[in-house]
Amino acid sequence: MNTRTRVALLMIPPTLLLLFFLVLPMLVMASFTVREGSFGAARQRFSLEHYQAFLQNTAFHHLLLRTVLISLETSIYCVILSYPVAYYLAFHAGPKRIALLTLILAPAWTSFLLRVLAWKLILGSEGVLSSLLVSLRLMPEPRPILLYSRGAVIIALVYSWIPFVALPIFAALDRIDRHLLEAAADLGCPPWQTFLRVTLPLSLPGVAAGFAFVFIPTLGEWVTPALVGGVKGVMYGNIIQDQFARALNWPMGSLMSFVMLLLMLILVLAFGRSTQLMTMEGS
Questions:
Q1: 169 within some domain
Q2: Mean pLDDT of 151-177
Q3: pLDDT tens per residue across span 67-87
Q4: How many domains does the chain divide into?
Q5: Ramachandran region of residue 156, left (φ > 0), alpha (ψ -120 to 50) or beta?
Q6: Interhelix angle for 250-282 vs 49-56, to 10°?
Q7: Tens digits of residue pLDDT in 226-252
Q8: Which among 219, 194, 208 has a CA at the least distance from the CA of 70?
Q9: How far is the C-alpha of 147 from the C-alpha of 149, rounded, in Å?
Q10: What b/e sequence results for 239-276 when a residue is b if at least 16 CB atoms lie within 10 Å of its CB, and e otherwise?
Q11: Residue 94: inside a domain
């Protein structure tokens, strides 16, 4: 067999998997969006009532915007907190980098649900923060600290996703040719200017990858808001889950999912384009 035939044969299994487990479910969900009524006998009739209901419901629009802002804020915090860690591992850790990298990844080996529940205990009325503030007499009695709020959702998400941001940034920094930094120093460039003009532009692909690793899954997050968010921390994914599980309104849930997917693609493409332009300008 020639090379083209071998490549075609190797591409058949993953192509079939994508068709059956991604494209086909998406088509089924798309068909649900134009069915009338909730999950029941009348769902086979064609209707655009759910599109009209979604466009008229401003609460869905506000919640979607709020969810995008929470995802953006979480992604930015993860990048800001992960970049110094990745920079130290790439340039100053030396032989200790493997051990330190293992420590960063260690929390990710435990269950995501357990990590979120741990934050629920920490921020609760009998948690570590509340007990510490009471012992320091900064608070008269135990009470929840940030629990069931937007801040609790962001804290839990940032803690859970930091390792997934540090890894691509570390990989991008580790691939930088050290001769470029030496050349900048030889030309009289101070360290802070070397970082801004050489290190940071060359590490932007890793920053963009880390940002996407956080932004895409947190945009559809519903477990963390359900556990630590409460009423004030509800996100768009919680409403989608309610449409499928409680209201049994699969057409509306499918439509809301497609709206979130479309918005996510637009934001990711815009961010990738801006990152590419920044990288070209830095070069």
A1: yes
A2: 91
A3: 999 999 999 999 999 999 999
A4: 1
A5: alpha
A6: 60
A7: 888 888 888 999 999 998 888 888 888
A8: 219
A9: 6
A10: bbbebbeeeebbbbbbbbbebbeebbeebbeebeeebe
A11: yes
